[in-house]
Amino acid sequence: MAEDVSENKHEGGTSTTTDFTERDGMDFIRTLVADDLRAGRYQSIVTRFPPEPNGYLHIGHAKSIVLNHGIARETGGRFNLRFDDTNPETEDVSYAESIVDTVRWLGADFGGTVYHAADYFEQMYRFAEYLIGRGLAYVDSSTDEEVREARGTVTEPGRPTAFRDRSVEENLDLFRRMRAGEFPDGAHVLRAKIDLASSNMLLRDPLLYRIRHAHHYRTGDKWCIYPLYDYAHPIEDAIEGITHSLCTLEFENNRAVYDWTVDHWQDFVRAEGGEPSRPHQYEFARLALDYTVMSKRKLLQLVNEGLVSGWDDPRLPTIAGMRRRGVTAEALRAFCEMIGVAKSNTRIDIGKLDFAIRDDLNHRAPRVLCVLNPLKVTITNYPAGESETFDAPLWPHDVPNEGSRPLPFSGTVYIDRDDFAENPPKGFYRLSPGGEVRLRYAYVIRCDEVVKDDAGEIVELRCSYDPATRSGSSPEGRQVKGTIQWVSAEHGLPCEVRLYDRLFTAPDPEAGEGDWKQNLNPDSLVVIHRAMVEPSVRDDAPGSRYQFERVGYFCSDTTDSRPDALVFNRTVTLRDTWTKPAASATAKPAQKAKKDRDPSASSDARPKSKPAAVAVERTPELEALRTRFATELGLSADDADLLTREVASARMFEQAVAGGAPARTTANWVINELPRVADAGALAESKFTGAELGELVRLVEDGTVSVAGARTVLEEMARSGGSPRELVSKLGLQQVSDPGALTPIVDQVIAANAGKADEYRGGKTGLLGFFVGQVMRQSGGNANPELVSRLVREQLG
Length: 797
Ligand code: ATP
Ligand code: MG
What we know:
Radius of gyration: 34 Å
Bound molecules: adenosine-5'-triphosphate, magnesium ion
Distance between the termini: 102 Å
CATH class of the largest domain: Mainly Beta
CATH architecture of the largest domain: Beta Barrel
Number of helices: 26
Number of strands: 27
Helix content: 25-40%
Strand content: 15-25%
């Protein structure tokens, strides 16, 4: 027995010892590990990932795996994969297999041995007899209800049940008969005898064993009693020599039971002549991600109710789903490292995940051309029946990869419907009647004629090309502003494209009343049945990743039932189409993501302060709002576009204007000021309403507060909420527009700067700004600047 429990039988994922010392920016768990190593508390660090094989792993598990494996790797320690398989009813070997595969795929080296809690059942049982023998555990024959009731409440201590004082002999006899299968489920339980009055309810004689006549996927029918988590987990850790047992915060109170169990386990092992190890439990924040749900129970519900196609549905946060969507293990690991580990629960902006995915795919996914919504373009002056092939680079110049592919061109090509506008809005640099555009890597074409069917729908464009503009020829002829993707009709391959999007429309689908499933995004999957992709992808392996230029990152599907069909799953868009665009322009991740776009392929030129437009798929509702904002409210096409990329900003704007705030000024605030105070994507749950924003805008308009003051108010609204008017006075930001109050300050400033005043009077009127600035400063920034300017001119004039 002694060997059984203390023997070091690991071949775990190891590496040579490294120097693991405390560093700036180290998370609290690594800091703790470094301290343990420095103090010599452990020779080597052993961590574990302990999934229950009752579902597929999700990205929350990835966080735990990356953390546990990372610490073992960095310290030259070991990392164990162990199934916490103590619950026969929900576990299954297919889950276990998928989990092993997934952990491997993630690159977490567990050294080849998969551990199982079920393999320790015999040791756990013997330890239970040991506890009974020392009066530390007893068989309770109360009903579940009675046990619960006698446990007391937070304010009242628990009471003993009628069975707490059974003799050791009786307890042993009953426990053995429990194991032998003499009793039905629920007839008895084994409880630890700890402290019924403890303020920690979990210490009030926790359950150690229960009777379950159930088939276990690993031990079959050998057992009909099964240990509970709080008892089993510390023993599993101790047996495997785990040093740091990391779990999520909700287990904080369980730590007392963990320690109780480990302490007695050590005595037990010593009594048997062994040398026990001492694991410690530490808790960290579990990962919660916006716009999705994470618990296995809820994921199972989505799968079982057919709301998604299976555990590997690309919309799910399961690792299998993300894999199928085209996300790489490196991207997932980078994401987990980026978010770090902390001691308090927060929800993570899903934009961070998208960023990690784009950052990884940028240098991994070659660029190819694909047209999602093909519109036929006939090039009337291209020699009939001929074609030619361009040698097109697979990578943009800022990615240090090399290679090219042949790209065939002919007299009929497809372009995307969205790249043609019969009545182009201002700033539209793609194709329009009489207009010109460059076909990526090919020629400049001009649209000469628009062909429509009887229903008035555009079915074809007749264009002419300019042979002098052949890509790569020098000079390439004249420059045009737009470049668009295309596919030769004769050579292109029809394909299915699945545009996956967020599974839920609410950042926290589980918040609020009502069924969380009502927050499912009806547009989370849009299937395009007949897109056209360039022929170079024809023989690529399933699972190949691409950037379809100007469209997004895609991955060919690996599990489609039609082997001949070309199917592509969208992994991620090229940039964030959900969050406020202005916000992504300032946020760091988006800035980097911007590089993903090959500038030569982007066709829209925009004013500098605003982000370039991207093709955004709007819901019909948002589309209608865009039109209304531009027509009825007189916004520029740009502003209407930017405001209606997401429901939250459109709503915010609408509500503000409904309260009487002027549309154009309000649009400016929503587009340019909100991103400074709200995290990307946080608008929907912001602390203030559109009506309040509108009120603030009106306070600026009527001179109550200066623009600078209003910015301060907005920051406070975003932080803690509150009425703008009240905040203006609470923060002392009322704009002073009373000449009687300002004139004395103006006089004072002029008197203090008599020399400059003379210079001004002598003609150096450029000093006006100096005086206005001084007065503004003296007034705490609250003076009405126009009024100050007028007063200064009057006093000096
Ligand atoms: P869920 O609550 O999603 O059903 P679980 O905790 O029941 O998950 P387990 O198989 O018991 O799933 O978890 C295995 C390990 O993964 C545990 O150590 C657990 O703490 C960790 N883990 C589970 N979910 C998360 C998460 N969202 N963030 C970080 N770690 C997690
Ligand atoms: Mg669990």
